[in-house]
TrEMBL record:
Its cofactor is Mg(2+). It comes from Pelomonas margarita. The chain crosses the membrane at residues 30-50, 57-75, 105-128, 135-159, 171-192, 204-222. Belongs to the CobS family. Joins adenosylcobinamide-GDP and alpha-ribazole to generate adenosylcobalamin (Ado-cobalamin). Also synthesizes adenosylcobalamin 5'-phosphate from adenosylcobinamide-GDP and alpha-ribazole 5'-phosphate. It comes from the Bacteria. One of its GO terms (molecular function) is adenosylcobinamide-GDP ribazoletransferase activity. InterPro entries: CobS. It is found in: Cell membrane. This is Adenosylcobinamide-GDP ribazoletransferase. The lineage of its organism: Bacteria, Pseudomonadati, Pseudomonadota, Betaproteobacteria, Burkholderiales. Keywords: Cell membrane, Cobalamin biosynthesis, Magnesium, Membrane, Transferase, Transmembrane, Transmembrane helix. Pathway: Cofactor biosynthesis; adenosylcobalamin biosynthesis; adenosylcobalamin from cob(II)yrinate a,c-diamide: step 7/7. The gene is cobS. Its EC number is 2.7.8.26.
């Protein structure tokens, strides 16, 4: 429970208060990132379902997206913008890392952020017109599997930036296999529960494969350009995987 609360505090804007804090907890709490993702997805699903009863699908989709962005404080969106600004052009590793630290947003980051928000709003609008179970499943799975993709990148790469100046230094350390196993277990429990609820297993497998492909591609890209992951790179991984899972759920198959 303590590690879950640390993960909730780190990934969301919820006012979680801890009486004490150990830096090692921040590294260990990554095992619960998918669980936090489920909670964020559940909030988005609740807003989507409620708003769809009052307004057109597009309005409901934007409100649901706004709810999840507000809940996370745009944490992952910031990583996507910074990563595309840094790696969208052809620059050296040191220059790319310097761009990531710059609080200003450039053209690559603005385009990536705008297209990401537009695509996710469009996909949620599609879900708003479909049976509730599918919409709930898509939001829960997209947020959980996307955070699992980020954990996978962390576990498979060393830290690519300056660990001494990392904003969250414990996350620059290697992720223990136990934490990866627990994160996978959370995803497994979610997918098993959705299957039991009536969501087609083929759709869930496609969603899982989509998140895995994004994680693999981000692994290769970050390794080639930076020699490892950064916090912004993990945020970009989450955003791209979230879109990939939503695409898997809305594809006409």
């Amino acid at each position: 429970m303590r590690l879950f609360l640390v993960a909730l505090q780190f990934l969301t804007r919820l006012p979680v208060r801890l009486h004490r804090f150990e830096p090692a907890w921040l590294n260990d709490c990554v095992r619960h990132f998918p669980l936090v993702g489920m909670m964020v997805g559940a909030v988005g699903a609740a807003v989507l379902a409620g708003a769809a009863q009052l307004w057109p699908a597009w309005v409901a989709a934007v409100l649901a997206l706004a709810a999840t962005v507000a809940l996370t404080g745009g944490f992952h969106e910031d990583g996507l913008a910074d990563t595309l600004d840094a790696l969208g052009g052809v620059v050296s590793r040191d220059k790319a890392l310097a761009i990531m630290k710059d609080s200003r947003i450039g053209s690559y980051g603005a385009l990536a952020l705008g297209l990401s928000l537009l695509l996710r709003a469009a996909l949620l609008a599609v879900l708003a017109t479909r049976p509730l179970l599918g919409a709930v499943a898509a939001l829960l799975a997209s947020h959980a599997l996307a955070r699992m993709a980020a954990v996978g990148v962390m576990a498979s790469l060393p830290y690519g930036g300056d660990a001494d100046h990392a904003k969250a230094k414990p996350l620059a350390l290697a992720v223990a296999p136990r934490s990866v196993a627990i994160a996978l277990a959370w995803c497994g429990l979610l997918l098993a529960g959705l299957t039991a609820a009536g969501v087609p297993a083929s759709r869930l497998l496609l969603a899982g494969a989509a998140a895995a492909v994004v994680a693999a591609l981000m692994h290769q890209w970050l390794k080639r350009r930076l020699g490892g992951y950064t916090g912004d790179g993990l945020g970009a991984t989450e955003q791209l995987a979230e879109m990939a899972v939503l695409l898997a759920f809305t594809a006409s198959l």
